[in-house]
């Protein structure tokens, strides 16, 4: 799965349009999890094995339910509406309303 939205990366100013959750870390003790989101120029650059132009961690203050895949949970939370306050990560605001694609 992937997240589709134009995002201007802070370090270079390059626009990345294709984003993939590469890792989800779950902290059961503190009821938090974090998704490592990698941003690519396009789906083609990802498919061709190119390196991401940006990578960032987006945190959430709750855990995925037992019946939900952690990656799917992270993707849903990253694109969730602005009134979903489960992420203290400021950069999440740039992904609100993005499309989740296969």
From TrEMBL:
State the superkingdom.
Answer: Bacteria
Name of the protein in its database record: Uncharacterized protein
Record organism: Caballeronia pedi
């Amino acid at each position: 799965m992937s997240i589709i939205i134009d995002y201007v990366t802070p370090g270079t100013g390059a626009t990345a349009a294709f984003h993939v959750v590469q890792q989800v870390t779950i902290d059961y003790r503190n009821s938090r999890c974090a998704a490592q989101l990698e941003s690519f120029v396009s789906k083609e650059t990802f498919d061709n094995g190119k390196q991401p132009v940006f990578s960032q961690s987006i945190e959430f203050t709750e855990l995925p339910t037992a019946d939900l895949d952690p990656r799917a949970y992270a993707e849903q939370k990253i694109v969730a509406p602005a009134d979903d306050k489960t992420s203290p990560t400021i950069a999440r605001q740039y992904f609100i309303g993005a499309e989740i694609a296969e």
